[in-house]
Design goal:
binds NADP nicotinamide-adenine-dinucleotide phosphate; single chain; alpha/beta; globular; Quinone Oxidoreductase, Chain A, domain 1
């Protein structure tokens, strides 16, 4: 099969190659999927560049997410799964068979039935972003009826956070970085969208709500003062990313707000919570709650360009088409 691979980390053009390798066979408890579309996330780019290195088992096919069709099952998996159109999660997590290849193999539960109403593109966007969004929203208690601030709502995690939160009947305040991004957050259903560059972000949010119950935070180092200003004893700031790796926290201010701070790394989320995320996403898909981000389309031979597009922060979603 044709696959993108790397065997050491470094710049995309230096380490990514498209090669012919032997098609993998599904082991016990696994399914093999003929991949149609592979989704690229910042995590894939960070693993390949070495920014967040992961062990490489001889070679690594990149990308956690994708859409495809099950064409073979391993021992212990129902033959009825053959022919199912599925979305994939964690394909490359501790495994060499990411989705940037014509076939991948994943544990049975990591290939989830995609309803006919969902496109291949939407299926390939879900894994890391929607599961992270779910964790950020549902950790400790469901977001139903809460007032939720989604920072960076036009990003992939932000987008699904807005849609899932609205579906859970939360009031959603969102920030975004420009007119196009603001439009996207509005379309996703946010009740209020504010440009995070504006000098009066806090005033504009507080005219809508004095405090929020939960923050889904993409840029903690940039936004902590804003988040704290909107926090009270019932607020939980849930961070999944910070563009500066370190920040100074004013302890007294955090204490004054009695704020609760949570951190999420999707790979470390306990299995039961991951399964709950898959279940919720599946129901949300069947109710057509989740929508596609704008697509940037690449062929497998353009794998390096696809990674560079993510590195440049192109916005929307970078997808690699296998067929
Ligand atoms: N911890 C985890 O488990 C986990 C899971 C998924 C992703 N991540 C990380 O989270 C980050 C985002 O991932 P993604 O896939 O959502 O990327 P993405 O689609 O590129 O979105 C990034 C978003 O960050 C927003 N942003 C940048 N600076 C901001 C600021 N000061 N305030 C508010 N928003 C700001 C951008 O907003 P505009 O475009 O509107 O400017 C953009 O929409 C990446 O670093 C990724 O590695 C972590």
């Amino acid at each position: 099969m044709r696959a993108a691979v790397y065997d050491h980390t470094g710049p995309a053009r230096d380490v990514l190659r498209v090669v012919e390798i032997e098609r993998p066979e599904p082991g016990p408890g696994e399914v093999r999927v003929r991949v149609d579309v592979s989704g690229v996330n910042p995590t894939d780019v960070k693993a390949r560049s070495g920014e967040v290195p992961r062990p490489i088992d001889e070679f690594q096919v990149p990308h956690q997410d994708g859409t495809g069709e099950i064409d073979a099952v391993g021992e212990g998996v129902s033959e009825k799964r053959v022919g199912q159109r599925v979305w994939l999660w964690f394909a490359a997590a501790g495994r060499r068979w990411g989705t940037a290849a014509e076939w991948t193999v994943v544990p049975d539960e990591q290939a989830v039935l995609l309803p006919p109403t969902a496109s291949d593109e939407l299926g390939a966007m879900l894994g890391v972003p929607a599961m992270t969004a779910h964790r950020c929203l549902w950790v400790d208690e469901p977001p139903n009826g809460q007032t939720v601030l989604v920072a960076g709502a036009a990003g992939a995690v932000g987008h699904f956070s807005v849609e899932l939160a609205k579906w859970a009947q939360a009031r959603v305040v969102a920030t975004a970085g420009g007119p196009e991004q603001i439009g996207r957050a509005r379309e996703a259903g946010a009740d209020l969208v504010v440009d995070y560059h504006a000098p009066d972000v806090l005033d504009r949010i507080q005219a809508f709500t004095p405090l929020v119950d939960r923050v889904v935070e993409v840029a903690l180092s940039a936004n902590l003062p804003l988040d704290l200003a909107l926090s009270g004893p019932n607020t939980r700031i849930v961070t999944y990313s910070s563009f500066e790796p370190e920040l100074t926290i004013r302890v007294r201010e955090c204490m004054n707000h009695n704020v609760d701070m949570r951190f999420v790394l999707v790979y470390g989320v306990p299995r039961p919570a991951l399964r709950a995320a898959v279940h919720t996403i599946t129901v949300a898909l069947s109710e057509m709650v989740l929508t596609e981000l704008p697509v940037h389309r690449f062929a497998l031979d353009q794998i390096a360009e696809a990674h560079e597009a993510v590195e440049k922060g192109i916005g929307g979603k970078v997808l690699v088409y296998l067929r």
